[in-house]
Amino acid sequence: MKLTLLVIGKTNSHYVKALIDDYANRIAHYLPFTIDVIPELRATKSQSIGQQKSMEAELIRKQIQPGDYLVLLDEHGSERRSVDFAKWIEKRMVTGAKRLVFLVGGPYGFAEEIHALAQEEISLSKMTFSHQLIRLLFVEQLYRAQTILRGEPYHHE
Question: What is the dihedral angle through the alpha carbons of 73, 76, 81, 82, rounded to the nearest 10 degrees?
């Protein structure tokens, strides 16, 4: 199974990008992993939040393939401890999905049609983080999950 982190807009901080790239390379030692970027919407001042979310939804749908298992990273999703997340990933890996796709939405969250399209929603915290930091936090957790599953000494209980 392939893991994909699908994000809207590029990472602006080169410090954060370097850390994300480091974890992405670490994850790739365990299984195929990509970070796919949907270009950020431009000239949106004249559009409502609903219109922007709808436009993003159209771009997101183009990236989702038949057989994908789509998981939204959303503040209203379920929270898991790192060990539980690792076990959850392990279960998803044997379900037969071609790709496990984790999606970070735009600044206003997801359109209802994207919520309906997703199989699950996960929250990394009840706190709100920038979209840049969520990417970093999430790739670290993906890496941590891989080390937990292999009994490697990265994670401490």
Answer: 10
